[in-house]
Amino acid sequence: MKAVILGGGIAGVLTAYFLREAGFDVVGFGGELTYPLASLVLTQSMPFGEDVELARRSLEIYRRFVEPREVVSVDILPRWVDLSRLATPHEVADKLEGLRLSPDEVAVITRDYLIPVRRVVARLRKELGFTDSYGLLKVEDGRAFVVADGRRVGGDVVVLAAGYRNSILAREAGLALPLEPYECYGVLYIVGRRLWRYSIGDHVLGWYGRPATPPLYIAGDGCGRLGQGPPPNYVRRITALMRQRGAPVLPLYLKTGYCEVGPHGGPLYGRHPAVENLYVIGGFNGYGSMVGPALAERLAELVGGRGSGDVFRLERHLDSRPFNPCEVAERHDWGAVLLRNA
Ligand SMILES: Cc1cc2nc3c(=O)[nH]c(=O)nc-3n(C[C@H](O)[C@H](O)[C@H](O)COP(=O)(O)OP(=O)(O)OC[C@H]3O[C@@H](n4cnc5c(N)ncnc54)[C@H](O)[C@@H]3O)c2cc1C
Q1: How far apart are CA 96 and CA 254, in angstroms?
Q2: Which residue, judged by its Cα, is nearest atom 5 of ligand 1?
Q3: What's the CATH code of the domain at 229?
Q4: Which residue's C-alpha comes closest to atom 12 of ligand 1?
Q5: Domain of 160, in residue numbers
Q6: Which entry of 45, 123, 206, 227 is 20 to 30 Å from 335 by CA?
Q7: 256 CB under 6 A from ligand 1?
């Protein structure tokens, strides 16, 4: 059996990895490696148990390839928040060295992991024989194939895993997908030693931050329609929010990233009902390195005929109406989910 994978990010290479474990010959098309950062954050501090379960499983999968580095995870939340849903062992603090909290805020302390995603993806691309070529998705007589480097490449299974380009490639092939691309922004900072120890989700002021190579730190937030570019004064705004927390920070560089999201604020995986051999995995928005590997494993199980009916299954979202990607509450984001439910 042969599987053709279109997209060589965390979702594509891990799906290829699990399909190869299941006995498939895999052919992968990767495009460029899009991870600008040395490491991405994996947190288990998320509002929904299903996501926490995926993050736990993803961490186990990463440990086959690398040893993730632990950092202190800080979620700043309003004091009124009910934390009984947080399935992860945690402490709640009123004060934190190096960060200013107001009396009506608490810091929820857990442990995050820095995953050298770029290294994992590059290694798997090589081991699985991915090429850097871009491909096009095509559908003929109800079956999918890929055209890359002027060749037609067909398989028993075709997996669309092209990140924010999933819905664009599907549309070009005449298919609809309940996924929307969007832009997100991150700023590289030099920060003081105390802040550098923390991976922060500030759900009150609205920014996130995580350590990179010392003394560098990445922080940001926000969402824009594709092609829109960062809002005016973006760097000044994020810098002001960090300084409001008492953190000495110096901005260096603003980067635009590209993501996509499903109508439920999270990722999707499953078989496309209109095409016999086409499977899709995507919509990971800001937490693809947290849940991507575990969802790739589930997709490979589904291809092998052993699927579960979880909330991330594509089939459950096909009837969704068009949505604005910047208006859905991202599932992994405490602040967004709490605000929606408040
Ligand atoms: C600034 C920033 C910071 C982030 N921080 C974190 C974090 O700390 N933790 C976390 O979990 N997530 C984080 N994310 C989100 C995370 O990067 C994404 O969720 C994740 O990359 C999605 O994985 P993916 O494999 O679906 O897509 P991608 O990583 O986008 O991979 C898709 C791949 O497909 C390729 N491709 C596209 N079109 C084609 C084509 N036609 N043919 C062949 N190949 C193609 C692309 O070149 C790319 O290599 C961050 C994102 C950004 C932008």
Answers
A1: 28
A2: 40
A3: 3.50.50.60
A4: 287
A5: 2-341
A6: 227
A7: no
